[in-house]
Input
Amino acid sequence: MGMRALVVSAPDTVNLREVPRPEPPAGWARIQVARAGICATDLAVMAGQAGVSFPVIPGHEWMGIVDAVGSEDDGEWIGRRVAGENEVSCLLCPACRSGRWRWCPHYQQIGFGRYGGSYAEYLIAPIYGLHPLSQAVSDLQGALLEPAAVALGVLERAALRIGETVTVIGDGPIGLNVLIVAKAMGARRIIVGGEQPVRLAMAERLGAYRVVRHPNEDLVAAVTAGHGQSDVVVEATGTESGLQTALNLVRPEGRLVVAGFAHGGQAVISPDRIHLPDVAVIGAGNNPGWMGRTVALVEDGMLRTDHLVTHRYALAEFADAFGTLSQRGDGLIKAVFEINPH
Ligand SMILES: [Zn+2]
Ligand SMILES: [Zn+2]
Output
């Protein structure tokens, strides 16, 4: 049987095509995708910048219903609403056996090459990465669990404590997810710097203590005016100016999380700016292990990120979706594909 999928056959060559439905091997499930978050990372995937192999079906933020399993033993999964992790690893090597399966030599990610992603009517995923969703999690929210888990990973790596101050540089979906999660974790005075008025207005509605629109306003001046430097700074733009600003904002012995994708871009900084103030610089480019707790937080009403969705598209509207995303036009904050409504 076939299915429709967005197939990227070469850099920036995307078509909606009829392709065979993937068959799950033993230990895997096939999921009929209901909703898929549209992520700027996938623009890099489509452009061939993210180390992908073509052809690729992108998409790594998704929820849906299990419609087939590879082994009879897993039959109980059929019909379950699930969200899933994208990591595929061997589970047997020393890295996997110590729980650091991101560093498995056989590591692959759904939506980045060999395993097709969620910009399709169906995908296959390992059952060990599936999370059943109760009715407390809407389809829309289910498709947004992955970026929320990324934000939880960012802040847990920073060892954020209740009552600490946080500055987020970048008003994209990851920056706004960090704001939402930081509030849920008990941070105070969360300041968000960005360039998009619509996104900064959203940050205000979500409870940011202060938003700063640069380049019109100086983030460093705004943060330090009366409030001191931040305990935790999250750099979510992947730019040199963002990193420079972050180093100006983090307090001595504070934590700076580098959470933006620079696409190979360079930044010149003096090591003294890390060395002398004893700043901890923490990378957060991967998201292993936070999905399950994110699901639990959403189910219990402690976390909600579906307010971020401003645009919904059918798969056939992909050109419009990706065009609006790359221009950050039309007030777009977060977009989703509505694939199999049920
Ligand atoms: Zn993403
Ligand atoms: Zn392994």
The chain has a mean pLDDT of 94. Residues 2-144+305-338 form a domain with the Quinone Oxidoreductase; Chain A, domain 1 fold (CATH 3.90.180.10). DSSP finds eleven helices and 17 strands in the chain. The two ends are 20 Å apart (CA to CA).
